[in-house]
Amino acid sequence: MKSAVTGFDARVRPVSARSAVIRILIAADSPTMTSSEICAATTAVGYPEPAVRVAVSRMVAAGELVREHRAYTLDPALRARRTELAAPPVRLWDGDWEQVVITAVGRPSAERAALRARLLSLRLAELREGVWLRPANLVRALPADLATTTTRFRLRAVENPAELTAALWPLTDWSARAHALLDAIENPDPAARFAVVSAALDLLTTDPALPEALQPEGWPVDDLRAETSAYLAWLRQLDR
After folding, report:
1. Among candidates 193, 104, 119, 118, which has minimal Cα distance to 150?
2. Which of helix, strand or coil describes residue 127?
3. What are the Cα distances from residue 232, in Å, to 49, 169, 183, 194, 235?
4. CA distance 149 to 100
5. Which residues contact 133 (CB under 8 A, 6 or more apart)?
6. Residues 6+ positions from 187 with CB-CB distance below 8 Å
7. How much is the pLDDT for 189?
8. Which domain holds residue 150?
9. Are residues 104 and 78 in the same domain?
């Protein structure tokens, strides 16, 4: 459903000027841009210059941007989100699965939430409380410090891997969302298009990175990543 006023898809929230600046600096080849470069990029994607200048001023006050020699550098903690722009490296899947079991007990809720967020960022999914799984097709090692709170196993010959995959991730909903964003990504309104691309990048952070054998028919992740990558490549040209 479209908004008659803004043209935004009703499921895509507009992006604030602050978030636009962060996105642009994350996408840029360098985390440092001049004021004129930031304004040129943000106005090109639909943001009025006064709103951008206010956002930049507030970000400097909050420590999110560091100003030096008429240039602004994005805080490293925010810059770390650049990982969302790239597909996780994968290898040929041999049918094995990773299993991570949380063994630590009696932890405060904040620590439990932080551990859950880390496991999600590692593209694991929770089968039941404390038991996390995924196909063993990612080229990455689990962080060493997780050994203090979890135990890792390798599973072979999982019965009905497609059914297990469907139980771990809401694949139908993910696919529908991705297709809706692909349909909306050519919106002629610059701010609306930027919001769609931002929503697509957020969705890609939840990509389960499935091996081809477990991907549902018409799985749209490659198309979505290609469209967002093309847009970000265009965006990077604006600061040159």
Report:
1. 104
2. strand
3. 21, 27, 18, 10, 5
4. 10
5. 97, 98, 99, 100, 124, 125, 127, 155, 164, 168
6. 7, 193, 196
7. 92
8. 97-157
9. no
Q: Give the tokens for residue 141.
A: 């090692």
Residues contacting 99, CB < 8 A, separation 6+:
131, 132, 133, 152, 153, 154, 155
Query: Residue for token digits 């060493």?
Result: 144
Which of these three, 157, 187, 203, is where a domain ends? 157
- Give the DSSP H or E segment for 97: strand 97-102
The amino acid present at 182, given as its one-letter code, is L
Q: Count the domains in the chain.
A: 2
Final residue in a domain of this structure, among 111, 126, 157: 157
Residue 17 sits in the same domain as residue 79: yes
Return the structure tokens found at 19: 């978030």
List per-block mean pLDDT (blocks of 10 residues) for the chain, which spans 240 residues.
38 90 86 90 93 95 92 87 72 95 90 92 94 95 90 89 96 95 92 93 93 96 94 79
